[in-house]
């Protein structure tokens, strides 16, 4: 009798079997696991970040996420579960797909903070993003295949039936156990030059985290940092000096302004009693910071200290400026400045992780930006005594900042005044035509008369004419100068980029002409570098202008720092490896400004400090060799066997600079050691 009843009700028997063997959550979990594997691997391959060890870690961390999503869809009524299946699949597809498109555009992944500012950013980059979507439509359609499958097979993926609360709790406990196991395993990974433990716990280098753990886990780690902060566990110990290579025949010392007489130079430091600060500090993080900065070897003053003291300074951070923009015929003024003055043969402008304003934050503060926030905007809440507006105004200079785009963009109306500048942008006293992008030439024409009659002035410019998109339809500056590049044997994007850089060249020419007419040229130093490499160009388009296939690991970021004064009689060649991080301390030394070299992450290029270029993924270049973090590969310049003890020493220095630069921002550290009450 019982057998006949069960035979008449196979659905009831299936439901009972489902309750006993986790059938529903198993089906949905398997689907989400395959979905995550498909999407994550698709992104890694598309962004050239795939590795087999990273694939294994991604699968391990994807399993508990899939289990929880599977349980969520299986624990609610069937119709709701099927709707949740489609919703979750859609959200994952959109999130990872958007990250893939964003990486194509910026060579990094966007943060959760960037999503809150999407309206501002989309106005400038929406067209480029739309163009990328159009160019990669077939790839995106393949990316969306799992979503289509979820819609079509939703009934099979979320079958009829239900589980008891006991089954659900066991399933959730299993997911938690797998997550705990994954975390425990990664925390044991302390071997290697850049351990996985550090990457998981402390690093905010998103491309590295995505490469190792996947987009979903990288997003979770960012959310954890935002809610709970980042644990501080770097070694608080004296920083070992890197080996200084012997001087070459082209070394800068050959052109030093002083005679070859032994001189004992002091340190570029301020009077800070770190021992007293350590003894009186109750905050453990601040105490560790005092201990660290007390251990840092400061850079020494040198024969170049005060070389430009008393002169005016015009400091330009140029949009997407790169060495490929320098041409003796198309950009003769930039070419002239690159051949005269200081010639930095190994200067780089690395890209950073969150926004393009990170590039000028690095250049103007000598600090490494914090992941997940707009660091320049965040610094507007802090005491920034090394802002050049403050340092120069204290010496009687008039200090101004100009930007020929919307004055509130990226919160510059907050950060610039906080750096000590009287600030003018579009909508705030800078009257230029509101084209896209706006004209750097017009900015010089209307801004220079505002300060040219001052006895002493220090002026900071952020340009915009070099901005993408690089075409002749949507870019006013490229269209304006299109005839000047019509005969170049390049693609439209490469020609449009050069047309934009011609505008920058003419802006600098206009600046020099106005300074000369006012009799101020000899008394003024002009400094120019880029905020980032021209990521609006593909690697193939960049290679056209470079003349050979570009090395994306480092060569994309190689650039030129222009540092020029009309009174310099001959150029000064500097071969040390250096970057935008080093510009602020180098200028501070040249102008004999009071600053503490221990409290910034860059180093005075003209000092005897070893050369070091730091990249956002912890790769580095030194005078000894190159380290590619994604491959954990170090190559000495002279060949031979790699010295991994040296690599570990450099990486220890690099990771400390990342950690303590972030903490300077988070803890308002300059206020703690240099605030007015101190």
- What is the number of E strands? 13
* Percent in helix: 40-55%
Low-confidence stretches: 1-7, 235-241, 245-255
Reported for the largest beta sheet, the result is: 9 strands, mixed
Describe this structure in words.
The chain has 678 residues and is an alpha/beta fold. Helix content is 48%, strand content 10%. It contains 28 helices and 13 strands. Helix 5 packs across helix 7, helix 5 runs antiparallel to helix 9 and helix 15 packs antiparallel against helix 16. The N terminus is likely disordered.
In short:
The chain is α/β, with parallel strands linked by helices and 678 residues long. The strands form two sheets. Strands 1, 2, 3, 4, 5, 6, 7, 8 and 9 form a nine-stranded mixed beta sheet that branches. Strands 10-11-12-13 form a four-stranded antiparallel beta sheet, covered by helices on one side.
Key descriptive features of the protein:
10% strand; alpha/beta; 678 residues; four-stranded antiparallel β-sheet
Write the layout of secondary structure elements.
Blueprint: H1 2-8, H2 10-21, H3 23-46, H4 52-74, H5 78-106, H6 112-116, H7 118-135, H8 137-143, H9 145-152, H10 154-157, H11 165-187, H12 196-201, H13 206-213, H14 215-228, H15 274-280, H16 284-295, E1 312-318, H17 332-339, E2 342-348, H18 357-365, H19 375-379, H20 388-393, E3 398-406, H21 412-418, E4 422-426, H22 440-447, E5 457-462, H23 476-480, H24 492-517, E6 524-530, H25 539-546, E7 558-559, E8 562-565, E9 572-579, H26 583-590, E10 612-614, E11 620-622, E12 625-628, E13 633-636, H27 644-666, H28 669-674
Parallel strand pairs: 1-5, 1-6, 2-9, 3-4, 3-5
Antiparallel strand pairs: 2-7, 2-8, 6-8, 10-11, 11-12, 12-13
Helix pairs in contact: 3-4, 3-5, 4-5, 4-11, 4-13, 5-7, 5-9, 13-14, 15-16, 22-24
């Amino acid at each position: 009798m019982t057998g006949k009843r069960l035979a008449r009700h196979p659905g009831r028997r299936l439901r009972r079997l489902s309750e006993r063997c986790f059938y529903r959550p198993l089906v949905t979990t398997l689907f989400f696991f395959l979905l995550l594997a498909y999407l994550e691997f698709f992104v890694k391959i598309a962004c050239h970040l795939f590795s087999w060890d990273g694939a294994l870690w991604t699968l391990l961390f994807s399993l508990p996420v899939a289990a929880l999503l599977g349980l969520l869809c299986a624990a609610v009524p069937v119709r709701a579960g099927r709707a949740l299946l489609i919703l979750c699949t859609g959200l994952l597809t959109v999130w990872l797909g958007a990250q893939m498109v964003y990486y194509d555009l910026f060579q990094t992944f966007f943060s959760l903070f960037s999503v809150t500012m999407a309206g501002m950013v989309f106005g400038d980059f929406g067209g480029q993003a739309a163009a990328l979507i159009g160019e990669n439509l077939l790839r995106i359609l393949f990316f969306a295949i799992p979503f289509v499958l979820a819609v079509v097979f939703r009934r099979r993926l979320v079958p009829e039936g239900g589980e008891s609360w006991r089954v659900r709790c066991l399933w959730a406990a299993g997911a938690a156990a797998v997550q705990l196991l994954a975390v425990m395993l990664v925390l044991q990974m302390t071997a290697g030059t850049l351990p996985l433990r550090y990457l998981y716990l402390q690093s905010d280098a998103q491309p590295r985290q995505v490469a190792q753990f996947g987009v979903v886990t990288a997003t979770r780690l960012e959310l954890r940092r935002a809610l709970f902060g980042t644990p501080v566990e770097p070694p608080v110990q004296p920083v070992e000096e890197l080996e200084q290579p012997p001087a070459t025949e082209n070394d800068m010392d050959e052109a030093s302004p002083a005679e070859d007489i032994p001189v004992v130079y002091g340190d570029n430091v301020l009077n800070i009693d770190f021992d007293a600060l350590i003894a009186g500090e109750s905050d453990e993080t601040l105490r560790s910071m005092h201990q660290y900065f007390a251990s840092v070897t400061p850079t020494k003053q040198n024969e170049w200290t005060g070389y430009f003291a008393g002169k005016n300074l015009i400091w330009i951070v140029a949009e997407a400026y790169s060495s490929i923009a320098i041409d003796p015929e198309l950009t003769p003024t930039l070419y002239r400045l690159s051949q005269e003055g200081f010639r930095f043969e190994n200067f780089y402008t690395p890209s950073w992780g969150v926004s393009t304003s990170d590039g000028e934050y690095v250049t103007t503060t000598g600090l490494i930006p914090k992941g997940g926030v707009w660091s320049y905007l965040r610094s507007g809440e802090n005491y920034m005594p090394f802002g050049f507006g403050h340092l120069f105004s204290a010496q009687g200079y008039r200090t101004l900042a100009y930007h020929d785009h919307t004055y509130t963009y990226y919160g510059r109306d907050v950060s610039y005044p906080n750096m000590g500048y009287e600030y003018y942008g579009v909508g705030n006293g800078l009257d230029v035509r509101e084209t896209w992008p706006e004209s750097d030439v017009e900015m010089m024409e209307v801004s220079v008369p505002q300060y040219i009659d001052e006895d002493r002035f220090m002026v900071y410019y952020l340009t915009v004419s070099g901005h993408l998109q690089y075409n002749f339809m949507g870019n006013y500056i490229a269209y304006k100068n299109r005839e000047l590049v019509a005969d170049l044997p390049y693609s439209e994007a490469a020609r449009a980029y050069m047309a934009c850089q011609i505008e920058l060249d003419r802006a600098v020419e206009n600046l020099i002409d106005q300074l000369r007419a006012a009799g101020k040229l000899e008394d003024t130093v002009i400094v120019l570098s880029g905020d980032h490499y021209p990521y609006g160009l593909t690697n193939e388009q960049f290679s056209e202008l470079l003349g050979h296939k570009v090395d994306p690991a480092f060569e994309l970021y190689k650039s030129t720092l222009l540092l020029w004064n009309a009174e310099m009689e001959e150029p000064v060649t500097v071969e040390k490896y250096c970057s935008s991080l080093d510009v602020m301390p180098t200028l501070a030394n040249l102008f004999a400004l009071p600053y503490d070299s221990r409290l910034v992450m860059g180093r005075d290029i003209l000092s005897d400090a070893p050369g070091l270029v730091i990249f956002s993924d912890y790769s580095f270049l030194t005078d000894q060799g190159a380290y590619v973090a994604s491959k954990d590969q170090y190559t000495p310049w002279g060949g031979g066997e790699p010295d991994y003890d040296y690599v570990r020493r450099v990486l220890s220095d690099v990771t400390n600079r990342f950690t303590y630069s972030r903490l300077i921002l988070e803890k308002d550290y300059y206020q703690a050691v240099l605030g007015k009450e101190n």
